[in-house]
Amino acid sequence: MNPLHGGDISRKPPFPFFKQLASKLLQAIRGSVSFAPYSAKEVRNELALKAFKRLMILLGAYMNRKTLILIPCCSSKSPGGIRKYDRSSCIVNYLSPDAGNKLMALRRQVAAAFKEMPGPDVGFERPEVRIEYMKAYKRYRGNIYSRITESSWEKLNSSQNLKLLIVSALYGVVKHDETIRNYNIRMDKNKIEGKLLKTWWRKHGLCDIILDYIVTNKVEVVHDFLSSSYSEAVEPLQSEVQRIGVDYITHDYSGLGSGSNYYRGEDVQRLIQGYNENS
User: Fold this and answer.
1) How far is Cα 83 from Cα 213, in angstroms, rounded to an integer?
2) Which residues contact 95 (CB under 8 A, 6 or more apart)?
């Protein structure tokens, strides 16, 4: 597939320097040269910016490294579900015991503060039969999620080396296929102990929990598609990930306003579809 033309290989690239960019990017990934991304001033044309971003995503995807995608949750959710919790889908099974216990303790605090029904999904052992559960990628219905196709979710479900985590105001962080309840809590609106949730999660070490997942599951590259409030909640994740030698790619959508999540979703979709498990 030609990343510059969405699969149309019959057309020439719009700018000759993309060949050079591709070569330099590949060299940088292999560690042979240092690479500073081109700024918006240097790549002014809108088509060039879009094509350059797509090129970067696809080059990273085809390297077949163990990859983690981070996206935010959203306020728009599907109602309903089934009254049975799937413990096997919980992220705790993919964390060290200490990190798993810490996450569940924090979930209990948030759930209690916002008078959520106690349930195993938020760290309470006794079952609450009235709670309806649904896989996270089916529960969330915002702009990011609407751009990711069913085939991409299925690809994630079966992939050994491509994983996606969702940063959540209630749960802290969940696997894309973890079963969750319907809730109405936001990082940048709701407070606990006098602090916005984005600040509360940061102060209580959400960064350390995600870092534990990265180390435990031997992640080699992280793609950060988080919006500002969710980035604040996981600080200082980028510097901590880079400190342990894992590549960290931040996808910046500042200046796009309410349309930013639409573009996040498109780029996540592109990354999943471009990932080659067997390359």
Assistant:
1) 28
2) 103, 209, 212, 213, 216
Query: What is the CB neighbour count within 10 angstroms for residue 81?
Result: 17
CA 7, CA 1: separation in Å to the nearest integer?
Answer: 5
What's the CA gap between 65 and 219, in Å, rounded?
A: 8
The span from the CA of 71 to the CA of 140, in Å, is 11
CA dihedral 58, 64, 67, 73 (to 10 degrees): 50
Are 209 and 237 contacting, i.e. CB atoms less than 8 angstroms apart? no
| CA separation for the pair 132, 202 (Å, rounded) | 28
Q: Provide the whole-model pTM.
A: 0.81
Per-residue pLDDT tens digits for 120-142: 999 998 777 899 999 999 999 99
Tell me the one-letter amino acid at 27.
Q
Residue 128 CB-half CA count within 13 A: 14
Q: What is the 3-state secondary structure (H, E, C) of 231-260?
A: HHHHCCHHHHHHHCCCEEEECCCCCCHHHH
For 214-218, which contacts have Cβ atoms below 8 Å and span 24 or more sequence positions? 214/68, 214/241, 214/244, 214/246, 215/244, 216/94, 216/95, 216/96, 216/99, 217/66, 217/68, 217/94, 217/163, 218/66
Are 83 and 128 in contact by the 8 Å Cβ rule? The answer is no
pLDDT tens-place string over residues 222-276: 999 999 999 999 999 999 999 999 999 999 998 888 789 999 999 999 999 989 8
Q: CA 43 to CA 62: how far, in whole Å? A: 24
d(CA 222, CA 219): 7
